[in-house]
Amino acid sequence: MLGRATSFSRVFKHRRHFNKLAGLQSEYNHEDNSYYKYAYFAGAATFGVLGLSHFVKTVKLDHAQEEKQVKKLENLPMYKQEDVKKHGKDAERIWVTYKDGVYDVTDFIPMHPGGDKILLAAGAAVDPFWALYSQHKTAEVLEILEGYRIGRLDVKDVPKAEPDAFSNDPERHPALLVRNAKPFNAESPPSLLTDHFYTPNELFFVRNHLPVPDIKTEDHKLTVETLNGKTIDLSVDELKKKYKSYTIGSVIQCAGNRRADMNQYKKVQGLMWEGTAISNAEWTGVRLRDLLADAGIDVFDEKIKHVHFEGCDVDPTGTPYGASIPMEKARGNEVIVAYHMNGVDIPRDHGAPLRVIVPGNVGARQVKWLRKIIVSEKESDSHWQQKDYRAFSPAVNMGDKLKWDTVPSIQEYPVQCAICTPSPNTKVDRDDGTVDISGYAWSGGGRGIIRIEISVDNGETWSSCEMEQEKNQDPEHMYAWTLFRAEVKIPPGVKEFNIIAKAVDRSYNTQPETASGIWNVRGLIHNAWHRVPIIVKD
Questions:
Q1: 254 catalytic, yes or no?
Q2: Are residues 431 and 379 in the same domain?
Q3: Which of the residue ranges 72-81, 131-140, 242-251 would you say has the lowest mean pLDDT?
Q4: Where is the signal peptide (predicted)?
Q5: Per the domain annotation, does 395 fall within a domain?
Q6: Given a cut of 90, is residue 54 above it in pLDDT?
Q7: 336 domain-assigned
Q8: What angle do CA 98, 386, 322 make, to 5 degrees?
Q9: Which one of 98, 389, 440, 479 is the catalytic residue?
Q10: Within the chain, what is the greatest distance between any pair of CA atoms?
Q11: CA 358 – CA 351 distance, rounded (Å)
C-alpha cells in the first residue's frame, strides 16, 4: 500500500508537469478532479504512516524526477514553423504542433480514431482543430501526444489561444443525453422517445460535426450547380413560393447508433452512442428533382451519377461539411429540401434554414444548413464521404491501415430495432409477473417493418409485438419508424434475464444474433439483437 501511494504521487507530479508544459494547467483543476483527489489522499497516507522525514525524501525524489523531465525537454531541438511545414501530408514523416510542442505523428496516424482526418493539420498546428473537437483535451490524449514529441516550437511561432468556436451554439433541452459537448452530440432520452410517434424537436437527437452556423433566413441563398458549371440561386422565400411543397415522415439515424453495444463485443473507434441516436420527424419542403429540373438538369442524364450537398458548417480551413447520394436516389419522389420540421421552421441544431432529407439513408448524407447542390459524374470528395462513414470487414483491426477506397460509402441503413424501456439492469418484482417494454424499429431504403419479436429465454422462443406505424406509408415506401410495445412474462426461477428484441423488414431481412459477423473498426451500422438485462427481486 505504501509503495502504491508513493507511485501515485509520482504519477501525479509527472502528469501535472506535462499539463503545465502544454499550457493546460487550468483545465485540470485539482479540486474538481478525482485523479488529483486520489493523489492527495495517497500523499496524506504516506505522510501519516512514514512520518515527515520519509515524506520529505519522497518529495525530493519526485522533484528530482520532475527536474529530469524538464531538462529532457529543454534538450530537445528547437524548430520554426517553416521547418514543420516541410513535413506536410505528402512528406515521408508527418509533423504537427500543439502549443509549444513539435510532434512526429507518422506512426500514430493508422491508430487515430478519426482516421486520417489528422492529416488536415499535417505540417501545421492542431490547435484550431482541437478547438473544435474538445474530446482531445484530456489527460490521456495529452499523454499520448507527448509520446510523439520530437522538439519545441520557436516561441515566435506558437499560435495564439483559439477563441471558443462554440460560444454561439443554441441552447439545448436538459433531457438530452450529451455524448460530446463540443461539437455538440446528444441522444434522445430513451424513456421519452416512444411517447411520441414524431419526436418533439427539442428531444430530437443531435449530431454535429462542427460549430452550429447562425444563419439569417432572409439572407440565405441555395445554389444549384449543373454539370457544366451553370448555377441558379434561390432564396428560402423563393423556394416556398415557386415550388410545390411535400411533407414526409422520415427517420434520421446516425451511422454510429448503438456503437457502445458493438464496443462491448470488441473495441471500436468513435463516439460511444448508445441506442437513441435516432429520431423521427415530419419534414416539409420541395422535391430535389424539381430544383434540379428548374436548373436545366436532366435527372435521367446517364453522365450524372451523383448529387453533392454542401453545408454552411465549416472547419478551420474553411472546408464545409459535405456528402453525396446517387442520382438514382436523388430523383426519387421522397427526397426533399426541407424548411419545416414537425410543422415549424427547422431549429438551428437540425439545419436551419434548409436541410436535405434523404429518407431511408443514413443521417450523414442528410446535410444540414444546406447552401449548395452540385450534380457530378463522381461522388463527393468530402472527407465525410471518402474517409468516414464506411464499414470495414471484421478482418480489419485497430491500428491497421484503412484502405478507404476498397469499401463503398454507407447509404441505406440495415434493419434496426432497439428497446427503449425498461432501461438496462432495471429491478422488477417477481410478484408483478410481467414487464412492460417499448422500443423502435426501422429499416433503410423504405423497407417497412413487418414483424418485431421479443424473447426472454435467450432466443429459444419468441413472441410478437404490437406495432404503431405511419398510416400514409406502405411497406414498400415506409420511411418513418415503427414503434412497438409488449408485455412479457418474467421467467420462473431466475434472478436475472435478458429481454431481447429483433425486427424483420419487408425484404425479410433480419438482425444478426451478435456483433461477431458485423464488427467493424469504426463501430458503424451496428444492428445485432438488442439485449436489455433485467434483475428480478423476490
A1: yes
A2: no
A3: 131-140
A4: none
A5: no
A6: no
A7: yes
A8: 80
A9: 389
A10: 86
A11: 14
- The Cα 526–Cα 425 span in angstroms is 21
Each residue's pLDDT tens digit, 63-73: 566 666 666 77
464 C-beta neighbours (distance < 10 Å), count: 11
Q: Does residue 371 lie in a domain region?
A: yes
Domain boundaries, position 139 = 78-153
Would you say residue 63 lies in a domain? no
Which CATH number do you get for residue 442? 2.60.40.650
Annotation marks residue 389 as catalytic: yes
Verify whether residue 87 is a known catalytic residue: no
Task: Say whether pLDDT at 4 is over 50.
Answer: no
Q: Give all strands (DSSP E) within 135-188, no chain letters.
A: 149-153, 177-180, 185-187
State the catalytic residue, choosing from 10, 14, 54, 136. Answer: 136
The string of pLDDT tens digits covering residues 262-283 is 999 999 999 999 999 999 999 9
149 and 104, same structural domain?
Answer: yes
As a whole number of angstroms, the distance between CA 356 and CA 426 comes to 39
Confidence at residue 317, expressed as pLDDT on a 0 to 100 scale: 85
pTM of the model: 0.78
Omega cis (within 30) before 422: yes
Confidence tier at 86 by pLDDT (50, 70, 90): very high
| 136 part of the active site | yes
Q: Is 493 exposed, middle or buried (0-12, 13-18, 19+ CB in 10 A)?
A: exposed
Tens-digit pLDDT profile for residues 426-455: 999 999 999 999 999 999 999 999 999 999
Give the cell for residue 343. 410543422
The catalytic residue among 87, 98, 149, 254 is 254
Give the C-alpha separation, 290 to 243, whole Å: 8
Contact present, 306 and 324 (Cβ < 8 Å): yes
CATH number where 264 lies:
3.90.420.10
Q: Are 370 and 426 found together in one domain?
A: no
End position of a domain, from candidates 118, 153, 188: 153
Q: Which of 179, 207, 220, 390 is catalytic?
A: 207
Q: Quote the CA–CA distance of 520 and 103 in Å, as a whole number.
A: 29
d(Cα 296, Cα 298) in Å, to the nearest integer?
7
Q: Which amino acid is at 450?
A: I
* Amino acid identity at 456: V
Q: Residue 220 to residues 87, 217, 291, 352, 367: CA-CA distances in angstroms?
A: 39, 5, 16, 10, 16
Omega prior to 183 cis, within 30 of 0: yes
Q: Are 185 and 272 within one domain?
A: yes
Contact 253, 277 (CB under 8 A): yes
The domain tally of the chain equals: 3
Distance between CA atoms of residues 390 and 410, nearest Å = 6
Query: Among the three residues 119, 153, 187, which one is the final residue of a domain in this structure?
Result: 153
Same domain, 198 and 268: yes
Same domain, 469 and 383: no
Q: Could you tell me if 82 and 200 lie in one domain?
A: no
Alpha carbon distance 527, 418 (integer Å): 9
Domain with residue 119: its CATH number is 3.10.120.10
Spell out the SS3 assignment of 517-538. Answer: CCCCCCCCCCCCCEEEEEEEEC
Catalytic residue among 10, 14, 112, 340, which? 112
